[in-house]
Amino acid sequence: MIVLGLTGSIGMGKSTTAAMFADIGIPVNDADAVVHSLYQGEAVAPIEAAFPGATKGGAVDRSELSRQLAENPALFARLEAIVHPLVREREKVFLQHHSANGAPLVVLDIPLLFETKAQNRVDAVAVVSCDAQIQKERVMKRPGMTAEKFALILSRQVPDHEKRAKADYIIDTGHGLDSARQQVSAIVHRLTSQKRP
């Protein structure tokens, strides 16, 4: 089974691209969805212990957690120490399940792939990218997004040009959905037909 890591900076279209892999039958493990689920389950108690007041009604209050992190960015390491091992555990279960079922290819959608050295756990990396201006326009349309928040997020991510340089494949989402779909299909065909990037 080939494991493809999918990543991309904020606003590059990674989630939309991940859905394109899923649409053609490739199993996708979405790290963001896993975190969302953990924030309503096993991450709640340790996060409340580390970030008092950051949970509400048995789930993590994302806006309160964001506020605490924005106030003190040094706390990101504390949050990652709680969340990353739980995400890895879910990832392991996903890989075991699809390996046992004979899937030829799976995708690990990992937002901070290079930042967490996850490239060492996959066979190939696809980076979702687009022009910086398009990226900014997409991100600034998000509810509650500010220029400061965008800058903070970017400061925690490996720059796009570095990601592109390290990628085995680049999926350019700046030319519309059909173009991105064609690029996804080409990558799937290449990986499943030759078994190795």
TrEMBL record:
Record's subcellular location: Cytoplasm
Enzyme Commission number, as recorded: 2.7.1.24
Residues that, per the record, bind ATP: 11-16
Main localization of the protein described in the UniProt heading: cytoplasm
Keywords: ATP-binding, Coenzyme A biosynthesis, Cytoplasm, Kinase, Nucleotide-binding, Transferase
Enzyme class at the top of the EC tree: transferase
GO MF assignments: ATP binding; dephospho-CoA kinase activity
A GO term from the CC aspect: cytoplasm
Stored InterPro entries: Depp_CoAkinase (IPR001977), P-loop_NTPase (IPR027417)
Metabolic or biological pathway: Cofactor biosynthesis; coenzyme A biosynthesis; CoA from (R)-pantothenate: step 5/5
Catalytic activity, as annotated: 3'-dephospho-CoA + ATP = ADP + CoA + H(+)
A Pfam family annotated for this UniProt entry: CoaE
Residues spanning the signal sequence: none
GO biological process terms on file: coenzyme A biosynthetic process
PANTHER family in the record: BIFUNCTIONAL COENZYME A SYNTHASE-RELATED, DEPHOSPHO-COA KINASE-RELATED
Family: Belongs to the CoaE family.
Described function: Catalyzes the phosphorylation of the 3'-hydroxyl group of dephosphocoenzyme A to form coenzyme A.
Protein name, entry field: Dephospho-CoA kinase
Organism expressing this protein natively: Pararhizobium polonicum
